[in-house]
Amino acid sequence: MSGRTRQRKKATGSTRSARPAAKSSGGGGQRKGRSGGRRGDDRAERGERGVAAGDGAGQDEAETGIFLHRATGAVYKGETVVNSAGMPVRHGKGEWIDGEAKYEGEFRNDVMHGKGSYTYPSGASYSGDWADGKYSGQGTYQWPDGSFYQGSFVANAIHGEGKFVDAAGREWSGSYYNNVGPGLVHDEYE
């Protein structure tokens, strides 16, 4: 897996190419992929981005690896597969760290999907279900002041049945619609 260009998508949907960290194994210093070549490195050195992950067609079995985005210092440790374009993508369980931001959980085709926890640099966090890089399903969002919402999310919005507990411990339960509901005093979250 190492030695190829690495494609990365953040929860915001932005795409950046990333290069795997070189792994010392004697000899050349970089572990070569299944093809034995450096096809992705050549593209990365020319500044080209990899191809976004598709529907999983052409993916091999999962491998575990460590990838470093050299421009930002972000690191991914976890399972990967090679997509139909020949690019390794995050797929399976892993941990992504970008400065003080951290996601630990499941990925599908290079986006957060399944169960996982994300901690923001502000100290806010989300733990629960993800679908295509967005909070979706049951989860808990906690603000830096300690207040939290626990319940249903749809496409990154607090939506459905849940409860909100403020920093003083007061609790409200009920139906929430597009980030609006009983006791919810936070306009936005990260």
From TrEMBL:
Residues 38-49 have a biased composition (Basic and acidic residues). Keywords: Repeat. Gene3D superfamilies: Histone H3 K4-specific methyltransferase SET7/9 N-terminal domain. Residues 1-11 have a biased composition (Basic residues). InterPro entries: MORN, MORN_repeat_protein. Residues 1-58 are annotated as: Disordered. The keyword Repeat applies. This is Uncharacterized protein. It comes from Thecamonas trahens ATCC 50062.
